[in-house]
Amino acid sequence: MFFRALLFSVLFVCLPAQAEVLFDDPTDDTLNEVIGGSSCDTIDSWATGDSARSQYLTGIVTLNGERRCGIERDNERSAAFLKKAWEKGAADAALTLGLMYYGGYGVEKNNEKAVELLVASEKGGHVRAQRELARAYWGEKMQDVFSEDIHKALYWFEKAGTAGDHQSGYAASRIYRGGQGVDRDERKIFYWAKRSAEAKYGDRMFSFPWLAELYEKGVGTKKSLVLAYKYYDLSGTSGVEGKSRLAKKMTQEQINKAVRLSRQWQEEHHIYFPSYRGLKHQPDGSYR
């Protein structure tokens, strides 16, 4: 009943006139790069800035602290800046504030306010808020507020995955394996594994062993030992066993093609594995 009452109230959440997402990247990598690449003088200037961005950045810096600039963690001060940022329309701030209200960090714990802000952040277009909603419905977060609902979790994972979030796409792929109240759908297993491996945000290489397995077994796609070997090769150490297994079924020409595809990917993305230089994994864990 508590959750239903909350849901009814958040259906009518009012957003600031011009709600916007300041940082599209749901991993916070871009946000951390901005803070880490700014001088202490610049960081200090954010506190007196009038924009949503300045207020939000100050809120994050005071929430986490910035030792090199002598800034200590201060949850209450952080909440004050984040509230100002949200009033100015920063959907990012609504998400952080929502999590703070849920945990009682710098503000009095308030589950209703937490849900309201989480939903408001999603309505403002924040991808991470979509992922947080998915996890809540999946039973991973805020279990005392959200009732577990795998179909709603899948809806939000797919929405965030479509927006480029690796974690959400990967989760959707695993859910479609079945056994969690969702019918097995091999086409969608592969579709979301592929999207996750090509996602704009997050460590997409985490999906490579899973995608390799799907290509190897022909789940949701045409079986391809070449593409399976490619993605096992791009999986580093975790792909060694898979490559060894496939090599027994492949011709040298097929292996060479897979290696070329792997190297092409590495060159395009400027990410290199030991195998790129012809090094092989040894029993002691090293590459020679």
Automatic annotation (TrEMBL):
InterPro entries: Sel1-like (IPR006597), Sel1_AlgK (IPR050767), TPR-like_helical_dom_sf (IPR011990)
Pfam family, one: Sel1
Descriptive protein name: Secretory immunoglobulin A-binding protein EsiB
